[in-house]
């Protein structure tokens, strides 16, 4: 098959794949239905304070897998749903930020700065429209970057990287994540180290399952579901609950939102925000492609750059940033949404997840089987059909459709999602917790796995409590196995060369890079803390 | 050849039916848990799930498949140690778990600690190289290994690594043997050029048919389906083989009526190409092979002894 | 005021030392490197050793890292509150685990046919008892503990939510098991 045939085959896999139901005799493709459902779920979840996209992805994954089964046909519908959530959630996060000054997702915090003042001025619908337009533009831009870059990254890696270099690359990613997330490289390192220790328990090549303390419970190791759902969801629920204890229920009575004046977005206004959207999309896309630094930083950076630009070109009489400038909303929303496409570049190109959402994409392909994200996916073989590559183009098609849904229906769903803000957290969170346990049990039916999940949840809570990001833990847990395997392979394949990590310039470059990131992180921390 | 064996196995299946009239009456006293010693996804997992589905359809039993992967099936064997023996708990894994896996004693189990039920098929194990290397026979491979730098050879289980090592030793060549994760990991590494060769257990058929991979040696005690002219391990001076069966087994002292009924029902399914499970086995392995009863017990006892010898030979 | 970073840092270093000198050497099948088949390979102890070393480095860095002037103020009360929440979760997981078999024992005591939970775990109502009571305990317990009072509304919501989850998860999916039915 020629490269173009793969693209066509991928689109066909989505459009002519299994049908969900028939509408007036026309079969409606299951994948598209799942993408649509995912986007709607994502918007609702994003608009609910206390819930976030990755949470919904985590909980729905085991249930989806059980529903669609463990076969290749399940991949596109399941991934479509997850990607729909990912894309919908950033859009939904803007809703409570603009209307009630409460960010629905952490990355929407910057949106409150200009979004809420707009609401106070009676321009909430206009603010939502700006958010919608910028968010979807950023997202689409990022997807295009993914489609273009991922195959090239993968081909480069496959051509130039052998086992030692692949090992070094994994080390670089982990140290980068440790150094960048959470503001303190020391805490990042601890978080990474704990993730590695957790994943190494019960593994190994010997018949004795290592670090299992002789118990059968630990012999099989911790499953990835218990660790990740525990740290990310149970941990977050416990922390949220503690925060709730401090304040009274915030979401009882709300003032009514009264809009007045023209809520339409004029052509002139669209032209005004366009450069901010473009600038932020670029920033968000670049940040998204780097492992570890996610939407929150992208939003902050996009906002800062937008403010700098605005300072020079602010129109006469227009409100400043922070006082209800539509440019402010545009700059933030474009930036945090443009992360969601490019964060799949390292996933598809290298098999390395950069943020929580990407972790669940890897987890999905891992659990279902038949598709291993990484450079080997992009083998444009001509004699045999590389089904993985067809799936990638199917995935791209699903992403484009998700954008289409966001463009067309996203605005309406954003307005509808307003009701989610009124859901009381106190009862919602325990239901989320119960759902999490149910999902874990569906994947791994033993009470032991629930106890492990709770244990990881307590760990996740403590980490949040001391300002240690749980994300390095999660990513280390996901990558730990491949890191050890590729090191073992590199060592054996080089005939037991103890210096295999220094066997080529590329590997040395990656290793030097990992040391440099940590050192830079430490120095930045030092100068940062003297300022504070 | 495979057909012939399959016919033999059918005969065997019927002979069980004739001798074990107990089997006719056995019905599970409650819902069944069927462990699967493979991670979810992939061919081995689907095989197990399809068989479970067909058993449910035919007999109206309630079966819950549960993945219990790890340590080539030893984790599952341990999991079943304290399980009820009334036939409501059993699992599918590979025969290597019972022979090589238990041979060195660290597992704390012997094949006597489980009840073998029935095999479903013999894995099509072949020593495979990428076609791009230009090696057409094992001699070409040996030649290349002797003239160039040390070749990298992958292995997906420790038993396979041992046999690979002995194969190299018999041919008088050095190889860097590297453990890889599963059949697809091996295939990817071969395509990417990270590895030069390795034993694969069925995942390679598609590549061989497309002319991208070449089978040089049969790992089994019989010739390969796709490359019947390839030598056997015995022809190359290796007195061991990699006859790895997919098989069902249950906890020790399992109810013999349950054992007989399950053996009969499962062999009927795997030998029937009109079932989804049978069709899958036909596509991936050239058909099902159902060995049970005495014949299976003998195979396991023999390969347990031979695995101990293999371990000894490979550590010299 | 707690000197949080010092505690975490020294805790990490301590754990790392235990790992490096006790746990890893005592509890792995092969050492840092092993010789198998006349070839040197990486042993099972190497990866955990590196992980614990990283933990030690992280801890040490945290100890020497300049502390912010405003260290996070951590008070005991929130921990106690979260501890109570966790206890409620533990209680509800136990309820989930044992309510079904317990109910069966009671039923047998009242003259129901003698059987085992394992054999009825897929039949109504036994299959739902543990999950239902465990789920309701979890939701009511956590919400009431956090709000400081028990309201009838919370109980109704909890019952409804648990029933909806049962319908969502168990009814359409044949192979999905609700806790604790997979343990048998």
TrEMBL record, chain A:
Ranges annotated as spanning the membrane: 21-45, 51-72, 79-100, 169-202, 217-238, 347-369, 389-414, 426-443, 499-522
Keywords of this entry: Membrane, Transmembrane, Transmembrane helix
Pfam families (UniProt xref): TctA
Residue ranges of every copy of the DUF112 domain listed in the record: 32-475
Descriptive protein name: DUF112 domain-containing protein
Lineage of source species: Bacteria, Pseudomonadati, Pseudomonadota, Alphaproteobacteria, Rhodobacterales
UniProtKB/TrEMBL annotation, chain C:
Keyword line: Membrane, Transmembrane, Transmembrane helix
Annotated TM spans: 7-25, 45-64, 76-96, 128-148, 155-173
Name of this protein: Tripartite tricarboxylate transporter TctB family protein
């Amino acid at each position: 098959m020629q490269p173009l045939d793969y693209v066509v085959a991928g689109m066909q896999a989505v459009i002519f794949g299994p049908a969900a139901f028939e509408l007036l005799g026309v079969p409606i493709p299951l994948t598209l239905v799942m993408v649509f459902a995912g986007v709607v779920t994502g918007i609702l979840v994003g608009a609910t304070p206390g819930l976030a996209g990755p949470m919904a992805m985590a909980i729905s994954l085991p249930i989806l897998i059980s529903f669609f089964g463990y076969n290749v046909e399940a991949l596109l519908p399941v991934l479509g749903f997850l990607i729909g959530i990912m894309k919908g959630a950033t859009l939904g996060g803007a809703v409570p930020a603009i209307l009630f000054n409460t960010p629905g997702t952490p990355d929407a915090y910057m949106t409150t700065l200009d979004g809420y003042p707009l609401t106070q001025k009676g321009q909430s619908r206009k603010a939502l429209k700006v958010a919608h337009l910028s968010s979807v533009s950023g997202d689409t831009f990022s997807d295009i970057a993914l489609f273009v870059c991922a195959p090239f990254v993968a081909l480069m890696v496959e051509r130039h990287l052998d086992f030692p270099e692949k090992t070094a690359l994994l080390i670089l990613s982990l140290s980068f994540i440790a150094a960048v997330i959470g503001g303190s490289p020391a805490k990042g390192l601890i978080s990474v180290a704990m993730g590695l220790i957790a994943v190494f328990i019960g593994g190994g090549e010997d018949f004795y399952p290592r670090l299992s303390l002789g118990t059968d419970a630990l012999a099989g190791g911790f499953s990835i579901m218990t660790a990740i759902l525990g740290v990310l969801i149970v941990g977050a629920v416990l922390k949220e609950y503690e925060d709730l204890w401090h304040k009274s229920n915030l979401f009882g009575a709300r003032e009514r939102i009264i809009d007045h004046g023209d809520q339409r977005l004029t052509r002139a206004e669209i032209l005004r925000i366009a450069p901010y959207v473009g600038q932020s999309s670029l920033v968000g896309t670049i940040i998204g492609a780097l492992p570890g630094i996610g939407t929150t930083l992208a939003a902050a950076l996009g906002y800062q750059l937008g403010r700098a630009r605005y300072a020079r070109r602010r129109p006469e009489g227009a409100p400043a940033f922070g006082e209800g400038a539509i440019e402010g909303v545009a700059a933030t929303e474009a930036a945090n949404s443009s992360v969601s496409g490019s964060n799949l570049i390292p996933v598809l190109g290298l098999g390395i997840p950069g943020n929580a959402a990407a972790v669940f994409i890897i987890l999905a392909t891992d659990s279902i089987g038949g598709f291993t994200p990484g450079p080997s996916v992009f083998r444009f073989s001509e004699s045999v059909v590389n089904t993985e590559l067809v799936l990638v183009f199917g995935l791209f098609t699903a992403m484009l459709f998700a954008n289409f849904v966001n463009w067309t229906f996203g605005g309406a769903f954003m307005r509808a999602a307003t009701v989610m803000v009124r859901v009381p957290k106190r009862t919602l969170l325990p239901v989320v917790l119960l759902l999490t346990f149910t999902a874990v049990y569906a994947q791994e039916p033993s009470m032991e796995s629930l106890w492990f999940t709770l244990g990881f949840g307590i760990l996740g809570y403590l980490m949040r409590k001391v300002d240690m990001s749980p994300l390095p833990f999660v990513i280390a847990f996901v990558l730990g196995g491949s890191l050890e395997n590729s090191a073992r392979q590199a060592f054996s394949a080089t005939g037991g060369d103890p210096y295999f990590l220094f066997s080529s310039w590329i590997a040395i470059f990656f290793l030097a890079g990992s040391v440099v990131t940590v050192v830079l992180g430490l120095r930045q921390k030092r100068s940062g803390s003297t300022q504070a | 050849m495979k057909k012939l064996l399959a016919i033999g196995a059918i005969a065997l299946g019927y002979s069980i039916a004739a001798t074990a009239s107990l089997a006719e009456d056995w019905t599970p006293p409650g819902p069944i848990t069927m462990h699967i010693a493979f991670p979810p996804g992939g061919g081995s997992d689907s095989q197990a799930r399809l068989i479970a589905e067909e058993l449910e359809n035919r007999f109206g039993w309630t079966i819950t498949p549960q993945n219990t992967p790890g340590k080539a099936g030893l984790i599952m064997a341990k999991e079943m140690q304290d399980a009820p023996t009334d036939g409501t708990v059993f699992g599918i894994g590979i025969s290597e778990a019972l022979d090589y896996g238990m041979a060195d004693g660290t597992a704390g189990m012997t094949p006597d600690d489980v009840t073998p039920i029935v095999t479903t098929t013999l894995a099509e194990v072949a020593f495979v190289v990428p076609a791009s290397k230009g090696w057409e026979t094992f001699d070409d491979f040996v030649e290349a290994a002797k003239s160039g730098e040390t070749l990298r050879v992958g292995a997906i289980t420790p038993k396979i690594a041992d046999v690979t090592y002995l194969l190299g030793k018999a041919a008088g060549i050095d190889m860097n043997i590297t453990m890889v994760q599963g059949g697809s990991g091996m295939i990817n590494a071969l395509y990417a050029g990270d590895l030069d060769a390795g034993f694969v257990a069925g995942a390679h058929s598609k590549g061989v048919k497309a002319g991208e991979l070449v089978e040089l040696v049969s790992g089994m005690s019989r010739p390969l389906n796709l490359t019947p002219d390839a030598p056997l391990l015995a022809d190359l001076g290796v007195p061991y083989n990699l006859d790895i069966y997919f098989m069902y087994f249950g906890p020790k002292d399992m109810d013999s009526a349950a054992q007989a009924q399950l053996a009969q029902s499962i062999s009927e399914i795997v030998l029937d190409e009109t079932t989804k499970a049978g069709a899958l086995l036909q596509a991936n392995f050239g058909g099902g092979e159902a060995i049970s009863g005495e014949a299976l017990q003998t195979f396991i006892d023999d390969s347990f002894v031979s695995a101990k010898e293999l371990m000894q030979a490979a550590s010299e | 005021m707690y000197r949080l970073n010092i505690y975490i840092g020294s805790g990490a270093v301590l754990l790392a030392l235990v790992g490096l000198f006790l746990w890893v050497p005592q509890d792995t099948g092969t050492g840092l490197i092993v010789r198998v088949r006349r070839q040197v390979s990486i042993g099972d102890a190497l990866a955990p050793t590196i992980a614990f070393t990283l933990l030690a480095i992280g801890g040490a860095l945290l100890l020497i890292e300049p502390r912010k002037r405003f260290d996070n103020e951590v008070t005991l009360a929130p921990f106690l509150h979260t501890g109570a929440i966790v206890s409620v979760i533990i209680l509800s997981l136990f309820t989930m685990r044992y309510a079904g078999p317990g109910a069966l024992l009671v039923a047998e005591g009242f003259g129901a046919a003698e059987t085992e939970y394992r054999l009825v775990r897929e039949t109504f109502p036994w299959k739902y008892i543990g999950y239902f009571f465990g789920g309701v305990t979890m939701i009511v317990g956590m919400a009431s503990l956090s709000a400081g009072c028990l309201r009838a509304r919370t109980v109704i919501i909890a019952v409804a939510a648990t029933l909806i989850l049962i319908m969502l998860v168990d009814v359409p999916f044949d192979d999905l098991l609700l806790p604790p039915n997979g343990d048998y």
